[in-house]
Amino acid sequence: MALEAIIVILIIGAVAGWLAGQLVQGMGFGLIGNIVVGIVGAFIAGWLLPRLGINIGGGVIGSIINATIGAVILLVILGLIKRA
Question: Are 38 and 13 in contact (CB under 8 A)?
């Protein structure tokens, strides 16, 4: 994977983490924590959504939507674990 691709994934993950933190109120980990969750969520969405047959679209906007879905899923799971 090229350095440029990694940088793009990190930026998209950061935006997705911020969006997920806004969508899932009360289960966030602060700005930096949500950005890290967004980056991990981008990788999760990149792996999980195609296996489920979900195709949002291409381009930067589609990638942000996919990563946000992955980050929301991860935030909900981490929030449930944190409450237990």
Answer: yes
